[in-house]
Amino acid sequence: MPDSVLTEKTERECSAFIDERGYITSPLSAEEENYPIAYSIVAYEKAGEVERLLRSIYRPQNVYCIHADKKSEKSFYEALEGLASCFPNVILASKRETVVYAHYSRLQADFNCMEDLLNFPVNWKYHINLCGTDFPLKTNAEIVRYLQFIEPSNEIESWPMSKMKKDRIAFAHNLVDGRKLYISKKKGDAKSPPPHEVPEFAGSAYNILSRAFVDYVMTDEKIQDLKEWSKDVFSPDEFFWAALGRFPLAPGSIPPTGIFNKNEFQSLARLTKWQTHVKNGQYPRCHGEYRHDVCVYGAGDLSWLLEQKHLFANKFSAWTDELALQCLEKILREREIKNSQDV
User: Going residue by residue through the chain (343 aa), what tens digit of pLDDT does each one get?
Assistant: First the structure.
């Protein structure tokens, strides 16, 4: 869908758009209605794909915050404004970041949406953060049941750091002016350990967090110290959540002992088929194409994807394989309708 299609609309135009695109506008069960979820979507291009993701997870009881990268094209932001204008529970982040790879700005983008979502008048239960190339593998009802199962815990990938990842937090890093690249200031500029004895673990930028955990992250003074400490860390989003998931004071935290380690194969928040894992025989081959060493799924990946327990997967793109998205959309919608009729 071209960005120009998603312009600000009148109420009548919104109704026609919502109907034409097939949005689910009523809760499909009391269980889902009484268990609202908050979503953050961080994106910088292709408003049509962001809309497609939103439509796949949209339910009127949930709430959605979309963070549009500050460096995005004006047409992209205007398209998202038009999209959000049609829904009372879809907002754009009130503060925008220029997101740079491996920089604190990626973490700050999530914080901006979290703050807006906490202030939104919906008593949501869990927060799930996504990017524009994610897509669900489960229906809303299935996601709700999983969240009820893990409550009050969080779903956070958390694993002891490798030497390479220890170096990421052991030394300060700076952006090269104007080029948006990272360099390390390793000589004579070692960082102190994380404040307040926060344990050192590695994980993913994408997690499932309880409302209590999110509120703690946004308000606790110790965590504000950790945020400040993380600002010159390389890929702080791959440290911050994993470490806090083991911090004893954090709601739903788990002990920092090996028995509770959870790697990317075990964490069910998000499934990513890295090229390395394919070469090692841990995942089957990619039927789409690789982008930044990550498989952009093709239709041939669907049967494998649907066998997995993960709630979401990355990456999808209509520019790579439209059929993969069409088929997944159809399968999930049919499952959604069947399950609602069985209730």
Answer: 555 556 567 889 999 999 999 999 999 999 999 999 999 999 999 999 999 999 999 999 999 999 999 999 999 999 999 999 999 999 999 999 999 989 999 999 999 999 999 999 999 999 999 999 999 999 999 999 999 999 999 999 999 999 989 989 998 888 776 555 566 655 567 899 999 999 999 999 999 999 999 999 999 999 999 999 999 999 999 999 999 999 999 999 999 999 999 999 999 999 999 999 999 999 999 999 999 999 999 999 999 999 999 999 999 999 999 999 999 999 999 999 887 776 5
Q: How many other C-beta atoms lie within 10 A of the C-beta of residue 122?
A: 13
- Cis? peptide before 315, omega within 30° of 0: yes
Neighbours of 93 (CB within 10 A): 24
Residue 211 belongs to a domain? yes
**Residue 332 structural domain:** 271-309+311-343
Q: Are residues 233 and 180 in the same domain?
A: yes
Whether 285 is in a domain gets the answer yes
197 catalytic per annotation: no
324 domain residue, yes or no:
yes
90 lies in some domain: no
Helix intervals (H) in the chain: 11-21, 30-33, 47-57, 74-84, 104-119, 140-150, 163-170, 211-219, 221-230, 237-244, 275-279, 302-307, 318-342
Q: Are 315 and 249 contained in the same domain?
A: no
* Catalytic residue of the set 49, 155, 238, 336: 238
> Does 251 lie in the same domain as 174?
yes
The number of distinct structural domains making up the chain is: 2
Say yes or no: 174 and 206 in one domain: yes
Q: Does this model's pTM top 0.85?
A: yes
Which of 240, 260, 280 finishes a domain?
260
Q: Hey, CA dihedral for 317, 85, 15, 334, is it positive or negative?
A: positive
Both tokens assigned to 68: 């549009």
